[in-house]
Amino acid sequence: MIVSISSSIPTFKSLVFRPGLNVLLADVTSESTDRQTRNSAGKTSLIEIVHFLLGGEADKNSLFKKPELVRHTFTGVFRIKGVPITVTRGGADERKVLLSPEDARALAIGLRRDEANGIAYVTVEEWRDFLGHVWFGLPLERKGTAFEGGFTPTFRSLVSYLVRRRKSGGYVTIEKQNEYQQPWDWQVNLSYLLGLGWDVPQAIQDLRSRKKTLASLRQAIKGGEFGAMFGTSAEIRPELARTEERIARLKVQIDNFRVLESYRELADQVAHLKDRMSEITFELASTKETIAYLSRSVQGEKSPAYTAVEKLYEAAGVELPTLALRRFDEVRQFQQSVIDNRRLHLERQVTEARETQSRLETELAAADEKKSGLLKILDGKGAFEDLVHMREDLAVLTSRAETLRTKLQNANILENNLAQQKRESADLELSLQEDHKRNENAIKDATVKVDHAIGELYDDRTGNLIITSSKNGPQIGIAIQGGGNQGGIDMMKIFCFDMMLFELVSERFGGPGFVIHDSHLFDGVDARQVHAAIMFGMRVAERQRGQYIVTMNSDDFGRTGLQNEPEVAEAILPVRLTDDETGGLFGFRFD
Length: 591
What we know:
Blueprint: E1 2-7, E2 15-16, E3 20-27, H1 43-53, E4 73-80, E5 83-90, E6 96-98, H2 101-107, E7 112-113, E8 120-123, H3 124-136, H4 155-159, H5 183-194, H6 199-222, H7 233-256, E9 258-259, H8 263-300, H9 306-315, H10 322-378, E10 381-382, H11 384-438, H12 440-457, E11 463-468, E12 475-480, H13 486-508, E13 514-517, H14 527-543, E14 547-553, H15 554-560, H16 566-571, E15 577-578
Parallel strand pairs: 3-14, 3-15, 9-10, 13-14
Antiparallel strand pairs: 1-2, 1-4, 4-5, 6-8, 7-8, 11-12
C-alpha cells in the first residue's frame, strides 16, 4: 500500500493515504478561466510520481527532468512486507533509488554507497527486480530461470495495469496499458497475471520474430540485395545442373588432353598448308580456263580460201595468167606455213598448261595428305598454355557450382524454415488451446470476477470476459451487451478488467496492495455508473485489505452523489487541489 507521497519542493502538497478508498479531488476556483483547467492541478502528476518511485523510466522528456523539478526529490512511503519503507528518487540522478539502512535490512536488500556523498542506494534495476519479486512472484535473479530470455513478464509492465497512465494511452483498450505496447507484451504479461501459461505466447512471439526476420530476408532477396548468396531453389537447380554438365565435359577434355611440345610449330605448318592449298586451288582454276581457251584457238585455225578464188575466175571464163597462178601458189604456201606455225605454238602452250595443271594437282594432293597427317598428330593434343586455360575455365566453373550449391542450400533452409514455421504456428495454436483448457479454473475465476463487476455497474446489461486462443496468441476482451453510451461502456470495461486483475494479483501474489484510476477513466461515463464503480472499487479494496485510489474533478464527483455516502466522504483526502497558481500539487505552475 501507499502510506504517503511527499517532495523536497517546499510548496509540494504532501498526501497521506489510508487503507480502502482514497479520493483526491481538484476544485475549480472562482478566478479560473477557460485557459485554466483543473488538468493542471496535478491529479495526473500524482500517478507519474508513483511510477517514478516504482522504477519508471525518466528520459530527457520526463516530468522529472523539467528545470523546475530536476533538482528536487520525491519520496514515497510504501508498506512492503508489512513494513513502511521510505523510498526517495530524484531527476538529477534518476538511476539511484535511496533507501535507509534500516529499511534495507528489513527488506534484506544490499545497499550500494555513493563514494562522493556517502548516500546509500540501490540501482533502479535492482529496485524493479525486488518489487517484481515481492509483489508479483517474479524471480529475484532471472539467470538460469525461464525468465532469463526475452519476451518474459516484467515488473514495469505488470504494475502498469494497476496504475494506468493516460498520457501513455493506458485508457484505450483493456489489454494494453500503453498505446505502443506490442501484442507479445500484453499477451505474456496478462497470461502471467491471469494464471495462464505465459510461455506459450512467449514462444508465439519468438516465432513471430523469426517470421519477421525471414520475411525481411526474403524481401531483400527479392529486391536483389543478397542475390549472390540467396535465391529460390526453383531458379537455382537448373542453373546448377547446366554448370555441372559443363564441368563434366571440360573434365573429359582435360583428361584426354596431351601436351605436344611442337604444337605451335605444327599448327603453323597446318595453317601454311591451308593457305597454300587455297592458292593452288585458285591457280588450278585459272590453268583449266587457259587450257580450254587455247584448245578452242587450235581448233579455230583454217587454211586461206585461195581455191575459191580460182573457181571464181573459172566461172567468169577468165583464165588466170601463169604469173598470177605462181603468185597465188607462193602466197598460199606462205599462209599455210604461218597457220601451221601458229597451231604448233598453241599446241605447245596447251601442253605446258596441262603440265602446270598436273603439277598443281600433284602439289595439292601432297599438301592435303600432309595436312591430314599433321591434323592426326594434333588431334587431342595442344600446347601447355591451352591446358592451363582449360584448367582455369574448370576452376571458374567449379567455383560457380560451389556458389550455386551454397545458394541452393540457403534456399532450401529458407524454404524449409517457412514450412516449419507454418507447422510450428499450428502446433503453438494447439498448445495454447490445451493450456487454456488446462487452466480452465483460472479463466473461470477471472470471468466470475468480471461478471461481478459488470453486475455491480449495470442492472440492464450482461457481459463476459472473453479469452480465446489463436495462431497469433491469446486474445482477451470484454463484451458488454446493450446500446447507449458506448464510449462510457468502453471505459467501464477497463474498470472491470482492472478490478479483476487487482483481486487476482492480491490473491495469487500479494501484489502492491493498490490500484489507481485517473479521472480520465470516468470521462463520458454516466454518473450512476461512476457512483457504482467507486463504491464497488471501495468494497474490493476493503476485501483485499488494499487501496483503491481515485483522482477526480470535484464537480464531476458531486454529480455522482458519492459525497452523500458516509464511507466515501471519509475517504476524500484533506488536500484539495485547485487550478490557480499555487493550488496545484507542486504549489506552482510550470510548462
